[in-house]
Design brief:
CATH topology: Rossmann fold
CATH class: Alpha Beta
Number of helices: 7
Largest sheet: 11 strands, mixed
Helix content: 25-40%
Shape: globular
Number of strands: 13
CATH architecture: 3-Layer(aba) Sandwich
Strand order of the largest sheet: 1-2-3-5-4-6-7-8-11-10-9
Number of domains: 1
Strand content: 15-25%
Distance between the termini: 43 Å
Amino acid sequence: MADGGNSTTRALIVVIVIAALALVGIVVVAVVVRDDPGSVDPTTPTTSTPATASTRSPTTSSPDDATSTTAPAKVDVAQHSIQMGLLARPYTTVSPQNIRPDEQLPVVIALHGLGGDANAMLNATDWRGAVERDRFIAVFPQGVANSWNMGPCCPPANLLQIDDFAYLDAVVTQVTTPPEVDAERLYLTGFSNGGIMSYAVVCARPGVYAALAPMSGSNVSGCAPTQPISLLHQHGDPDTTVPFDGSLSFSQLLSAADFPPVPQSVAAWAAADRCPSTPTTSTDGNGIDKTEWSPCGDDTRVELVRLPGVGHAWLDLGNYRALDAMLEFFDLQ
């Protein structure tokens, strides 16, 4: 860490940046509340989860890229809303068309990064095609002011004390209630701030999720699972936003806790999962390093994938596709 002088400078920068983001976040939330015709009595607890409103598009969904020659995926994209106190919290679902009466589909919840949104996460890769091909339901929650409150990280959601744990609990309850959903196969992923959030959520909700696959995030809370759960962590190196080696970055100034080195965090998770102390390592033709701990407690496993030369972006390199790797890890392919 930096010496005293650098610490003072860092503190001043933190104060300035957080103050600016707090103002932006408060304005955003004020606009949301003002424009929300469904706002309720302000005394309503923020953990309440009244009925959901949803709108569904039954038509075939097509990729945003107008130049794409790929046939549109046959999926249904639906918008939902959960009332959380004064806020109507939206989320998006993508599901296969023509679900059979005897089907029970797994669910993958994907959390966007700081400054992004649910739609950006949906369009970061070919989720629609994967949903049609592998027959699962993809869920894209929306953070307040495009951020997730993970305690020490990240503004403005943490400064506004948004209860994202209660919101995600409500999302899980609603998406796993229909008979066509297999609640035992519920998986969580997230990018950047969403990846940071995903670590904390899985630690706080043991037994809810079947596996975790954060991307380009970090276990900022330092939490450990109280019961073994499989982990796939994918990360680019160099990543100057959430550095692989835990070095100082501008984004870390927005956090009250340091970003730990990724290999250290994943190794600690493997230890909590009762994995072998010595992992196996391999490198493919693209120079992608994979570190694996297996077998672990309760038939779980832990993997760390490092992609060289890839920054803070969706992690595809050569013939490596991050979404495919994730779905294969979840046993959905």
